[in-house]
Amino acid sequence: MVKNQNAQNVQVDENELIKVRHNKLNSFIEKGVAPFGHRFDVTHHAADIRKEFGEIEGEGDAGEVKIAGRITAIRGHGKAAFATISDRSGSIQIYFKKDILGEEKYSEFKLLDIGDIIGLRGQVFKTMRGELTVRIEDFEILSKSLRPLPEKFHGLKDVEVRYRQRYLDLIVNPEVRETFMKRSKTLKSIRRYLDERGFLEVETPVLSTIAGGAAARPFVTHHNALDVDLYLRIATELNLKRLIVGGFERVYEMGRVFRNEGMDNRHNPEFTSIELYQAYADYNDIIEITAGIVKNAALEVCGSTKVTYQGVELDFENPGRISMNDAVKNETGKDFLSCTTVEEARNMAKEIGVEYEERFGIGGILNAAFEAKVEEKLIQPVFITGHPTEISPLAKKNPDDPRITDRFEYFVYGRELANGFTELNDPIDQKARFEEQAAQREAGDEEAHVMDTDFIRALEYGLPPTGGLGIGIDRLVMFLTDAPSIRDVILFPTMKVIAE
Asked: Which end of the chain is more exposed for a tag (fewer CB within 10 A), N or C?
């Protein structure tokens, strides 16, 4: 009962504060001052001022600047007051003095609140305490903030509010802005790495009549003009390989994909991936590219190949490499690829407490054992190779062992970061695998591939030997920013709808 009463009092207090701000808004209007301004000519940002004037000595004026930003602190309201203004580069102290501004302008200052956005002109100087400051000679209100920011010392901690009101999160938590600046830097580093190696960035459709290229449940929408159901893409793979058929030898696409699946710390229904394809290459070439992309991103974003994630140091310099079957054998002592019958593989799984579905063959059971006994223990970066053909419908079979494919997954901290393989370019084999996937779908696997006859047609014109790769950008950014949840690196994550 008390809890509800306290919550009600907080709401009343906030409403009162909003009312006070509206009154100040009206006071600005009565003074003939527009509370929502127009263009302001910015000459410096906070970081520019620190760089240009950081070494000045004494309290004399060092130079005039024009800056704009949000007030994040105000100290004192007598004839002089200090405040802090924040912009995209950081924050800087500012100084209001009645004798400099004049009676009327100083009365406008008294109508300012924390959260207001102002533009100002003034002289840079250092206070007696050595704090770099701008002495304001003139200012204008650019946007009156009608809602109070979260209380100064407690900030915005409620993750639900932070994710739903990301704009507020970015205002009061500078480290959040830093995370998304690093995200942008990560994307730029990947593009630069690939562009320098002759890859062409392309764009493919988000809407499709077939959801293919990955094992996942799609989102369905309806196109009114065509009166047809369409799917939001779950991968960009098949269209990118069509471009390789068409003669583009190296292509990549970075963009959103959509999967109608559960949500947790590592999964969001829409996320960013990059897929790339290189003609006349195989999975070994793609492993090198993958390692290079991640290593280069770590160097550019963090300054080192060693990063600390959730208290664990990860080193992206030289990732390990081991086959799925060997990894399972090392952990459990069971060699599933030595099995000659499914029954034998089932018995092995039972002996080590691995659950499996009746429809699984030897390869499916091996994968189940890997996921149950090995995956979460792969902390340091490692490439897992030799995936069973049964679970790899788009990968080329290994020439020495047709039960497995020339495929890899890149694991870090027990999580899949990337997936790549030598692409299947045999249209006859591809059609047979699609048919096998269709049978699995009939048996209840909603994530199995559907038949894509146009893709088969494209392969019949000839796909050169090709290596392909997909990287989860959000997961990579999580590692580079020490973010515990994928929602921490997506500006506007998918949230449950609640009544306002």
From this structure: C
